[in-house]
């Protein structure tokens, strides 16, 4: 009887402790993420989004503490319909205040426009998207990129933008710094500066969680974004069932580059040559310009070209980024895998990637894929 009583007391204590822990967690999640940060954050809820989807969006914007708690809360308490559209929120809003805002129908704006910027595109493509979707010309985009006053302003505002963007050897000052995503604007009269600022705000949100580790890295933030852009262009979405996940490819590519930098080798990346030559599609270039035979000049003198064999690019990343970068490529640049690979090659027909420690093994595979890859 005494044992039974002790067991019951233990169970009661366990239940009591569990209730206290849950109560503390519940109250913590209901509080604002940052009571002092009143910055307005525009959140776009897509049509058909589930509570799980909305929770993830809010967590990515750092507006709530837990997407799991959000999903459970909504299912248990059913706080009402959460409307698709744009909502203006802030980190100083409590959990319930955010829900109340989501319960309001966003004001419809018939003049609102949407601009979509893909991962891995260059500034030339960004300018093209802006020219097609707004009342700005592509030249207005390029003019803003050399606006010293504007560059000084954003260097002061964003911790990850440094004087490195003012290097005169860069093709485009903010290449790689504008985060690729889909953005909504009031109308076609939106300025280039407003578009850039919104993309930089998004890049800030993406980079902020990794700021401490970025500052510890041997590479500068400019070099990390540059490395991430090369990873972005090198990593592929595989079409074969035997393929690895794209993020696994990214971290392995990243480590190959770190290993080559440590050994004072060149990165040896073809995509840096393509950027130097302003070739957006190497395969199409070979077909249309070279008549099917590779005529790309891999020895073009450029601070971007890591294929140079004269020693000028040994142990160096390009002078600047070569494309927009995804969160996956940024993370890969900060957290490479722990492998000894120094070489990689891809099958451009299946997009499967192969990694090697030994040059002879790499060369054997490269020769094997030569006809498929058209010498690329």
* Main beta sheet strand tally, sense and closure: 2 strands, antiparallel
Strand numbers in spatial order across the main sheet: 1-2
Structural domain count: 3
Poorly predicted runs of 5 or more residues: none
Q: Beta-strand percentage?
A: 5-15%
Structural class: mainly alpha
Calculate Rg over CA atoms. 25 Å
Helix percent reads 40-55%
Draw up the topology in text.
Layout: H1 2-30, E1 41-45, H2 51-60, H3 67-77, E2 85-89, H4 95-102, E3 113-116, H5 123-133, H6 138-145, H7 148-157, E4 182-185, H8 192-207, H9 211-216, H10 221-234, H11 246-262, H12 270-276, H13 282-288, H14 327-334, E5 343-347, E6 352-356, H15 359-368, H16 370-373
Antiparallel strand pairs: 1-2, 3-4, 5-6
Helix pairs in contact: 2-3, 5-6, 10-11, 10-14, 11-14
Textual characterization of the structure:
The protein has 376 residues and is mainly alpha-helical. It folds into 3 domains: 31-102, Endolytic murein transglycosylase (Dna Ligase, domain 1, 2-Layer Sandwich), CATH 3.30.1490; 113-208, no CATH class; 236-373, no CATH class. Helix content is 47%, strand content 7%. It has 16 helices and 6 strands. The chain has helices spanning 2-30, 51-60, 67-77, 95-102, 123-133, 138-145, 148-157, 192-207, 211-216, 221-234, 246-262, 270-276, 282-288, 327-334, 359-368, 370-373; strands spanning 41-45, 85-89, 113-116, 182-185, 343-347, 352-356. The strands form 3 sheets. Strands 1-2 form a two-stranded antiparallel sheet. Strands 3-4 form a two-stranded antiparallel sheet. Strands 5-6 form a two-stranded antiparallel ribbon. A hairpin with a 4-residue loop joins strand 5 (343-347) and strand 6 (352-356). Helix 5 crosses helix 6 (138-145) and helix 11 (246-262) packs parallel to helix 14 (327-334). The chain is globular, with a radius of gyration of 25 Å. It starts with a helix and ends with a helix.
């Amino acid at each position: 009887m005494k044992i039974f009583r002790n067991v019951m007391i233990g169970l009661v204590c366990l239940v009591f402790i569990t209730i206290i822990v849950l109560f503390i967690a519940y109250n913590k999640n209901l509080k604002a993420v940052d009571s002092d940060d009143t910055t307005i954050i525009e959140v776009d809820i897509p049509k058909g989004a589930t509570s799980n989807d909305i929770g993830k969006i809010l967590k990515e914007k750092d507006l709530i503490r837990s997407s799991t708690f959000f999903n459970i809360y909504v299912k248990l308490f059913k706080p009402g319909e959460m409307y698709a559209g744009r909502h203006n929120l802030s980190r100083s809003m409590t959990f319930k205040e955010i829900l109340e805002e989501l319960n309001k129908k966003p004001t419809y704006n018939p003049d609102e426009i949407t601009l979509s910027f893909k991962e891995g595109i260059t500034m030339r493509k960004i300018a093209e998207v802006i020219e097609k979707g707004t009342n700005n010309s592509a030249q207005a985009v390029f003019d803003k990129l050399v606006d010293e006053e504007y560059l000084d302003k954003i260097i002061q505002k964003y911790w990850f933008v440094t004087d490195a963007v003012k290097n005169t050897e860069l093709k485009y000052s903010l290449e790689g710094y504008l985060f690729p995503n889909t953005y909504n604007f009031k109308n076609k009269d939106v300025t280039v500066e407003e578009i850039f600022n919104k993309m930089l705000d998004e890049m800030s949100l993406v980079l902020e969680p990794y700021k401490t580790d970025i500052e510890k890295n041997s590479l500068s933030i400019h070099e990390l974004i540059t490395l991430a852009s090369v990873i972005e262009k090198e990593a592929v979405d595989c079409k074969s069932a035997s393929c690895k996940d794209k993020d696994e490819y990214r971290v392995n590519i990243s480590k190959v580059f770190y290993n080559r930098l440590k050994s004072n080798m060149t990165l040896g990346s073809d995509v840096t040559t393509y950027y130097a030559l302003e070739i957006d599609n190497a395969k199409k270039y070979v077909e249309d310009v070279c008549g099917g035979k590779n005529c790309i000049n891999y020895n073009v003198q450029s601070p971007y070209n890591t294929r140079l064999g004269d020693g000028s690019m040994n142990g160096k990343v390009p002078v600047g980024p070569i494309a927009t970068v995804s969160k996956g490529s940024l993370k890969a640049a900060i957290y490479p895998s722990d492998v000894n690979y120094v070489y990689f090659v891809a099958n451009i027909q299946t997009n499967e990637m192969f990694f090697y420690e030994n040059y002879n093994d790499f060369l054997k595979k490269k020769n094997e894929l030569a006809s498929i890859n058209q010498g690329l």
